[in-house]
Write a structure and sequence with these properties.
Layout (H helix, E strand, L loop, with lengths): L1 H12 L15 E7 L2 E8 L6 E9 L4 E10 L12 E2 L1 E2 L6 E8 L3 E11 L2 E11 L9 H28 L10 H39 L5 E6 L4 E7 L12 E2 L7 E5 L6 E4 L2 E4 L2 E5 L6 E11 L4 E10 L12 E3 L7 E4 L11 E7 L10 E2 L7 E6 L5 E4 L7 H11 L10 H4 L13 E6 L5 E11 L2 E11 L5
Antiparallel strand pairs: 1-2, 2-3, 3-7, 4-5, 4-8, 6-7, 8-9, 10-11, 11-16, 12-17, 13-14, 13-17, 14-19, 15-16, 17-18, 20-21, 21-25, 22-26, 23-24, 23-26, 26-27
The structure holds copper (II) ion.
């Protein structure tokens, strides 16, 4: 009997961990933006399981911020209008311009962290879009499992022993010991109590299983895609929803810096990159005329943004047969492994480590080695950067404003209403991605980002010079902090 109960308790105490490949493996949000007069560098690390606690780090670059308040609220809908009472972020005693805080994120979907900075120049607010996508169910640690199992065994055996003893000895007169009939009554009561314990444990186990599988359905599953290439060189991408929360739809994509889809095609060795913009021809069906590309196997990362502000990266593969490609047009661009000496990575000697917000700065030089004076906006921004780990398990598309999608940033700003910050560096241009500026852009472009994990990465940087898109590729080794 005891063995059976023990086994059942083990079953009950184990949580089945559901492990799914992280969609792009880079869930942290990095932002370089303005809250009123203050320029802030923001990191938000959403929790892996929802509900869970997000970590928020805010660094003021201007040095005159006195207080930072943070509050989570939905990115869209009525909830976005009514902010609960904000928490005050803790100011670091070692670094007075660093503020940290922790926020509970309660449901999956499109959230924002609203940050309000106060200081000598008044107050200003900023909306950081944070998609909360539960990545996994948390597995219970071995120690906790053993502790709970032990406690359950004590409870179960204690209950049986108490019931049995009560039935056996409660009616005995003082000083007498139980006779055969008493013992028999005790054993029967103990058996009944054991049956009750077993039923309770079985019911508990099925309740636990139901809860776990319900949460399992809540774990984020990225959109899937099937790809086909026609004989005349058209790529067709059909998106499928493998099932997730009901609020995810396939018919609500919004343009993000001018295009519904940003498709990055890389070769396995990462020595080739195409940045294409397929058009939606029917709901969730995208098409793109392929450029000239060698026959081979390619990896595809397609960035999309829903009207809710949740952005997703669809990962798929593609075998390209011999195709007669067409010339690249518009915002489409290509990188092949020719040395692009005109873009240089400006970095100090500090080793790269995971999780640390770093400004990745690149300088564009002209043929004579002087800072380029002919930079233009490329899809509304001074530059676009792709961070991709060599094993292609981590991928992030980052802009000078940060890792949040431009569309989600715009939704967040709309929610700020009258408090809207007008100093986000790329704000003015996101509404017109093809805007040209009379004044030349600076020759350097910076991207705030933090690598989520150690490994060998490749960084692609794209800028536009006199109407021509230029791509630079850089290798980065990220040390593991544990060693
Ligand atoms: Cu971009």
């Amino acid at each position: 009997m005891s063995r059976t109960v023990g086994r059942l308790l083990v079953v009950m105490a184990i949580v089945c961990p559901i492990t799914l490949a992280a969609h792009v493996g880079s869930p942290d949000v990095f932002l370089d933006a303005a809250a009123g007069p203050y320029r802030l560098l923001v990191t938000v690390r959403p929790p892996h399981a929802i509900p869970g606690v997000a970590d928020v780090e805010v660094r003021s670059t201007t040095g005159d911020v006195q207080e930072i308040q943070i509050v989570p609220l939905p990115l869209t809908g009525p909830g976005a209008q009514f902010a609960p009472v904000a928490d005050r972020a803790t100011r670091s005693s070692a670094d007075p311009q660093l503020f940290t805080g922790h926020l509970w994120m309660m449901t999956a979907g499109a959230w924002q962290v609203r940050i309000t900075a106060a200081g000598g120049r008044g107050t200003g607010s900023l909306a950081v879009p944070v998609p909360t996508l539960p990545q996994s169910t948390l597995a219970m640690s071995g120690a906790l499992r053993a502790l709970l199992l032990g406690l359950m065994l004590i409870l179960a055996f204690g209950f049986v022993a108490v019931v049995s003893a009560v039935a056996r000895e409660a009616t005995l007169a003082a000083g007498t010991s139980p006779d055969t009939a008493d013992r028999r009554r005790g054993r029967i009561a103990g058996g009944v109590a054991a049956c009750v314990v077993m039923v309770v444990v079985l019911l508990g186990n099925s309740w636990w299983g139901a809860e776990a599988s319900q949460y399992g359905r809540y774990v984020y599953r990225p959109l899937a895609a099937t790809t086909t290439v026609s004989a005349n060189g058209w790529l067709a991408l059909a998106l499928h929803d493998p099932g997730w929360i009901a609020s995810r739809r396939l018919d609500d994509f919004v343009a993000d810096h001018g295009h519904l889809m940003h498709l990055f095609v890389v070769s396995p060795a990462l020595d080739r990159l195409w940045h294409l913009h397929p058009a939606e021809t029917a709901t969730a069906a995208f098409e793109q005329r392929l450029p000239e590309m060698p026959e081979g196997h390619y990896e595809l990362f397609a960035d999309l943004v829903h009207a809710t502000g949740v952005s997703e990266t669809v990962v798929t593969q593609l075998d390209v047969p011999e195709v007669h490609g067409t010339a690249l047009t518009g915002d489409d661009s290509v990188f092949t492994s020719d040395p692009t000496a005109s873009i240089g990575w400006v970095h100090d000697e500090r080793p790269l480590v995971p999780k640390r917000l770093t400004m990745f700065t690149f300088r564009v030089d002209d043929a004579s080695g002087q800072p380029a004076t002919d930079l233009e906006l490329y899809m509304g921004m001074p530059g676009h950067a792709i961070f991709i780990r060599r094993d292609r398990q981590i991928f992030a598309h980052v802009h000078p404003a940060g890792s949040a999608s431009m569309a989600a940033l715009a939704i967040g700003r709309r929610g700020l209403g009258a408090n809207v910050s007008d100093a986000v560096r790329t704000d003015e241009v996101t509404s017109d991605p093809h805007a040209h500026r009379a004044a030349a852009l600076p020759a350097t472009v910076s991207f705030p980002y933090g690598f989520p994990a150690a490994g060998d990465y490749r960084i692609f940087v794209q800028v536009k010079r006199s109407g021509r898109i230029v791509t630079g590729a850089f290798d980065a080794y990220v040390e593991s902090t544990g060693g």
